[in-house]
Amino acid sequence: MPDLRPSLVAGIALATATTLATPALADGTLHFYNWSDYIAEDTIPNFEAQTGIDVTYDVYDSNEVLEAKLLAGNTGYDLVVPTGIFMERQVKAGVYQPLDKDKIPNLKTLNPRLMEYLAQLDPGNEHAAIYMWGTTGIGMNVDMVKARLGEDGPLDSYDMFFKPENLAKLADCGVHVLDAPTELLPIALHYLGLDPSSGNREDFRKVEELLMPIRPYITKFHSSEYVNALANGDICLAIGWSGDVLQAADRAAEADNGVTVTYVIPKEGTLLWFDTLAIPTDAPNPDAAHQMINYLLEPEVTASISNYVAYANANDTSKPFLDEEVLNDPRIYPADDVLDRLFPDRASTQAVDRLRTRLWSKFKTGI
């Protein structure tokens, strides 16, 4: 990601779900800006039918795209879905308006442990509600990877990616990496046994020494193309988001194309992230935005989204409505011992942002 200055924009949100205690209906149109492939097919139509509010729904595929629009101002959006790492600084910059919690009764049942993580980013959980959450890890074409690394290869470890002797064996079948330094660099620090939020120059030097030898074996940096690439068998490895990889697995299975995709939370642990619902300060229709947040946190609604996109939601009351294959999948809802190995990223200082940006540029260009 580019520099995360205090003026950057984002949000995360505190969410919880209970029955949809409907606030007074808002008028007009809701302008909703969300990640691509990140909502159930019937979510928006059902909201429009229930409320009479028209929804203009636009999508993006990176926090940087959202950030650029928000920094430019006057986006016209009422509701956006920033990732937690951006929210911490951007809330301080005053980009988002505080939530009127009386209008969002479904905030009351969010998982307390996840809310504690969120409160570290947004004290008092004043500005955002959790939309979905997940991990960043390894997506792989099982057959291709095993053919190159062997049945006894490090298939449950970041050794598969960070050790050049392993990644070199996968270069011929394609390797994609999220174009997201705020995700991969903390993961690299953690892999080295260092503080994922470190701003120490010597730590970044060690990360550079880790990353540069594997650069020749990476095919592409992109934050969405790896989904179809995995599903179609065009690549064999991706560092990506949990739900995206599981969507790729579903697409491959539906296509019956002989491709088997799986997602791995590496044994070393990895990054835990939250995508949140936040209302820009200059939102034209904040009443409609509050109503949409409450609707999205309704147990059946948020469960239907989780069932569709294969990402976990934070609403414990949604569990009776989750498909068993989603609820019981430890890659989506990790067990407590796995949760203990996860770490949330934190916003950093401008000095650390510059270190990250400089290193990421060098890593991507290979120079």
TrEMBL record:
One family name in Pfam for this protein: SBP_bac_8
Where is the major localization of this protein?
Answer: periplasm
Q: Does Signal appear among the keywords?
A: yes
Concerning InterPro entries, the annotation shows: SBP, Sperm_putr-bd
GO molecular function per UniProt: polyamine binding
Keyword annotations: Periplasm, Signal, Transport
State the signal peptide span.
Answer: 1-26
GO biological process terms, semicolon-separated = polyamine transport
Gene3D superfamilies for the chain: Periplasmic binding protein-like II
- List cellular component terms (GO): periplasmic space
The record's subcellular location field reads:
Periplasm
Judging by the UniProt lineage, the source's domain of life is Bacteria
The family annotation for this protein states:
Belongs to the bacterial solute-binding protein PotD/PotF family.
Give the protein's function.
Required for the activity of the bacterial periplasmic transport system of putrescine.
Supply the name of the protein: Putrescine-binding periplasmic protein
